[in-house]
Amino acid sequence: MNPQTLAALGEPNRLRIIELLRAGPRPVNDIHVRLKLRQSQASQHLKVLKAVGLVEMEPRAQQRLYSLRAEPLKQLHEWLDRYRHIWEARFEELDEIVEELKQKGQSDA
Amino acid sequence: MREATTSERITRNETIVERTSDRELTVTRTFNAPAHIVFDAWTKPELLKRWWAPKSFGVTLFECAQDLRVGGAYRFAFGRDPKNPEVFSGRYLEVDPPSRLVFTQLYERMSDIGDVVVTAAFEESQGRTRLTLHQLFPSKEALEGALASGMERGMRVTLDQLDALVAEMR
Predict the structure, then answer these.
(1) What pLDDT digit, counting tens, does each position of B58-83 carry?
(2) Which of A37, B22, B88, B154 could bridge across to B140 with cysteines, CB 3.0–4.6 Å?
(3) Coil, strand, or helix at residue B99?
(4) Which domains does chain A have, with CATH numbers?
C-alpha cells in the first residue's frame, strides 16, 4: 500500500472529490462548482489525487474530465483487511484474559 | 492452560465492523464468558493494559488512568515512543456494570475532530457475551477525516472505519 494514497485521502476536500467521482467522471469545472471550491483549489487537489493514481484525467473537447481509478482503492481495501486485524488482535488477547478470569472464578468458588 | 486457549481458537468469534450511518461505526464481537468478566477486562487498568495495545502490533500502553464513574475522566497514552505517545482521553457518561459503558473519546493529536461518543454494550446470553461497540462521530466529515488522517498515521481507532468507507466506494 502506497502511504501517499492515504495522505491524499487525509484532506477532507479531496475525500469529497473522491465521493463525488464515485457517481461517474466529471469535468473540473463541475467539481469545483459542486463542492464550492475555488477552481485553483479544485485543480490543486485533483493534481494530488492524480499523482497517487486515485483519479485519471482525459481531455475531452475543451474540458478535462476526471474519473476515479479502482486499483488504488482495491489496494487500500486489501491493506485495510490487514488492519482490521487490530481489533481482532485485541480481541484475541481479550479472549485469553477472559478465559483466565473464568478459570480463576471457578477455582475461587 | 495453552490447550484451553487452543480449543478457543478453533471456534474463534468473528469481529464485524460496519459503518451504520455516515457518522456511526459499529464493531461487534462475541466472547465466551459472562458479561461481568468481559466488563472487568474493559474497565480494570491491569487487565486493559494487557489487550488494548496488542503485542503483535509492537505498541505499548504507557498510561491508563481512569476514574470509572459518571463524569470521571480517563486518559490512555500508547505507541512506540513514550515521549511522543498517541493519546485518547475523555469522560464517562454512563457506567452501568456489567452491561453498559458510555464515554466520550478525544484523539488528542486530531482534537479538531471533536468528541466521539462511544457506547460499549455487553449483552450476556447463555454464558456468552456479545459486545457492541458503537461510535458516534460529531459529523460525517469528522468520521471521514478521522479515518483518512488516522490511516495516514497508521492509527488504529480509525482503520476499520475507513474499511467501511472504502467498501462503500467500490
Answers:
(1) 778 889 999 999 999 999 998 888 89
(2) B22
(3) coil
(4) 3-69 (1.10.10.10)
Select the residue from A67, A94, A96, A108 to test the B interface by mutation, using most B Cβ atoms within 10 A. Answer: A94
Q: ipTM higher than 0.90?
A: no
pLDDT digits (tens, 9 = 90+) for B150-159: 443 433 333 4
Q: Which residues from A are below 8 Å from B156, CB to CB?
A: 83, 86-87
Instruction: Tell me the chain B residues in contact with residue A6 when contact means C-beta distances shorter than 8 Å.
Output: 148, 151-152
Closest CA to A83 of B109, B165, B45, B65: B165
| B151, part of any domain | yes
**Domain CATH code at residue B87:** 3.30.530.20
- Number of domains forming the structure of chain B: 1
Q: Is the pTM of this model over 0.90?
A: no
- Classify residue B154: in a domain, yes or no: yes
Range of the domain at B68: 16-169
Query: What is the SS3 assignment for A37?
Result: coil
